Amino acid sequence: MRSVRTLALVGCLSAVVGVWGSIGAQARDLTVVSWGGNYQDAQRKIYFEPFAKKTGKPVLDESWDGGIGVIAAKVKAGVPNWDVVQVEAEELTLGCADGFYEKLDWDKLGGKDKFLPAAVNDCGVGAIVWSTAIAYDGDKLKEGPTSWADFWDVQKFPGKRSLRRGPKYSLEFALMADGVPPAEVYKVLSTPEGVDRAFKKLDELKPHIVWWESGAQPLQLLASGEVVMTTAYNGRIAGINKSEGKNFKIVWPGSIYAIDSWVILKNSPNKDAAMDFIAFASQPENQVKLPEYVAYGLPNKEAANAVPAALQADLPTAPENLAGALALDADFWVDNIEELNKRFNAWLAQ
Amino acid sequence: MSRPSIRDRAWAAALVAPLVLFLVLFFVWPLWTMVTASVVDDAVTKVLPRTAAAMAQWDGNDLPPPAVQTAFAEDLRSAEDQQALGEAVRRLNSAVSGFRTLLSRTVTAAREAADLASLDLAAIDRRWSDPRFWRAIRDAVPPYTDRNLLAALDLKRDASGNITAEDPGTAANRVIMLRTFVIAGTVTLVCALIGLPYAMLAASASGLVRALLLLAVLLPLWTSLLVRTAAWFILLQQEGLINDALMAIGLIDGPLPLIFNRLGVIIAMTHVLLPFMVLPIYSVLIAVPRNLMPAAASLGAGPLRAFWRVLLPLAMPGLMSGCLLVFMVAIGYYITPALVGGANDQMISSVIAFYALGTANWGMAGALGLILLAVTLLLYVVYGRLSRSPQLPGGA
């Protein structure tokens, strides 16, 4: 009986202690969170490890799949268990407005004029410029598509296409296929008629679309011949061409580029180290190493200019790639994503 | 011991305390949070108390009187808590798209304005001359709301407060919810059809054969979900192994559409969930004496009759709990349908994840979760009645 009682007591105590320990804040090393995959491998090599060496303290890194809900949950828990996070443009806008991020110390970053204007924000500094564009297999299609109108033309290019499931990007691309010039896409999309027009254009292509969800899928679909062309992230296309010797081509006109930024979560216990890390990752001599591993553009102007010409051609920021491209309008999407996602789901279900 | 003393009872309670603590912390509390998140609606009143009070003067037609507009500007100017303001904006933007940019612009203007009484909101942004935006604020004044629960069922309240259906073509939660149950039910059925014979085979085998059979069914449990799904992609795609093999032996002329449709989802989910069906049935069958079937035969029952009258009734408890397990787990799936399904195979969890993670609209996520829970409980009660199994509460 005695042993049973002891057991009960121990069980009770250990449960309490266990729960307490997992909730209670502990001294934690600087934790940096990014998008995983090849990209994070490269970041580890050029940012995380050198920074850990320089400061003599370990840097932990984790990956995530985005979503302001994740950030909101972390910050509202009190002391977040992440410090530095790489976020997309909408998460930057939303989180900065809602007070989820610390304000950055721009003096440590070398001043706002050192960066592309679009990469400067009170709460974040641009880390990369990346693009979503049409990709096709150059070995299978000698004469590839050159525009969104071609993407929609199933007579000229028979076969399935794939698009990312969701209204974001799909609606913009549909409008461009319908003849809206890139500069006017968001103007048209801000009107109810524009949204109707985009959905109507998507109707045309609906039976030919395979929807993708994660960034690796479009390449798999393209490589297996399941689809004849797809939208994809430019860094992934350049990456697979290099690592697997593919000849995937990117159609830059009509592509949509966006900036991902570094932010510091509110009440981070490692706030100072986090700021130092972001400054380190934003220095031109460190940033310039990135395009060697992944084909993303650099927001630090000095770094962008120092990229070797051979690598430059693959970047979304190269002037010839930027011509005819469109910048993602984060404000439009933070206002409209809920309503349009609802409508998109209803449209899919029809 | 005749009657346990209070002390003994206290010790017994201490023994189960970890369990109770666990249940409260990880089950009751989250569930309660979900319920409250879906109906409590105080985000706007917290930040705009003066506006909320002044709204009583407005009948909801045309534009609100100047007093409301001034109270609103005062509230915005004195809104200190950025996170609370963010919550209010999120709530309003969910009702009418556009509040995000509208409010951030207006807050800046209200903070810079010298005289709030003469501040012309419509001049800051012309959207303030649209009563829709003001009505959205007025609708957010009551502390509790049913709008999330209604929206989860594709319903809404019209301007006069009556419940009506959402405009056609703008919402699909009901369709997706129904689809979720259809997919989960189909997967459960397929799992039962495969799982029962498989468990019988495993229970009747012995030694190495049994070990191999069980290993084969357990293996998918130990493999990462993404790897399993990617493997199905390789097998089922147009130029995949299965289509190539079928074409090589001349059974089909062109590739069959096996993936990016409902069939792909059923195949991949059945594969993943089969262990939850096989193991409960197996654990019941293994306890059935082996001489029952020969005994049935000796009494003149053919193999089918012996199966129907003897083995199946004995396997029933395992089959029932297997079905329940598979169905419950299947309802929550969304990664597999997202990766191998087509346009019409998304399940309700993906919509919940969109609200919870994508837009931090926990009210809507909670409401969808609540509706899903309610329907599932209802199905469970029906199932309990139908199965008439003594193990299930609600069973006759």
Brief overview:
Chain A is an alpha/beta fold. Helix content of chain A is 46%, strand content 17%.
Fold and architecture overview:
Chain B: InterPro entries: MetI-like, MetI-like_sf. Chain B: It is found in: Cell membrane. Chain B: It is a multi-pass membrane protein. The complex is a heterodimer of chains A (350) and B (396). Chain A is α/β, with parallel strands linked by helices. Chain A has 2 domains: 28-129 and 259-322, D-Maltodextrin-Binding Protein, domain 2 (3-Layer(aba) Sandwich), CATH 3.40.190.10; 131-256 and 330-349, Periplasmic binding protein-like II (D-Maltodextrin-Binding Protein, domain 2, 3-Layer(aba) Sandwich), CATH 3.40.190. Chain A has 16 helices and 9 strands. In chain A, strands 1, 2, 3, 4, 5, 6, 7, 8 and 9 form a 9-stranded mixed β-sheet that branches. The termini of chain A are far apart. The relative contact order of chain A is 0.17. The model of chain A has no long low-confidence stretch (mean pLDDT 91). Chain B is mostly helical and 396 residues long. Chain B has 2 domains: 43-143, no CATH class; 173-360, MetI-like (MetI-like fold). Chain B is built from 19 helices and 2 strands. Chain B has helices at residues 6-39, 43-47, 49-54, 66-78, 82-95, 99-112, 121-124, 131-139, 147-152, 173-204, 207-222, 225-236, 241-248, 262-285, 292-298, 303-331, 335-340, 348-358, 362-387, and strands at residues 155-157, 163-165. Chain B has a two-stranded antiparallel sheet. In chain B, β1 and β2 form a beta hairpin. In chain B, α1 (6-39) crosses α19 (362-387). The longest helix of chain B has 34 residues, at 6-39. Chain B is elongated, with a radius of gyration of 29 Å. At the A-B interface, α1, α3, β6, α9 and α16 of A face α1, α5, α6, α10 and α18 of B.
Contiguous runs where pLDDT drops below 50 for at least 5 residues of chain B: 391-396
Strand order of the largest sheet of chain B: 1-2
CATH architecture of the largest domain in chain A: 3-Layer(aba) Sandwich
CATH topology of the largest domain in chain A: D-Maltodextrin-Binding Protein, domain 2
Report the biggest beta sheet of chain B as strand number plus sense, adding barrel if it closes: 2 strands, antiparallel
The fourth-level CATH homologous superfamily of the largest domain in chain B is MetI-like
Shape of chain A: globular
- Beta-strand content estimate of chain A: 15-25%
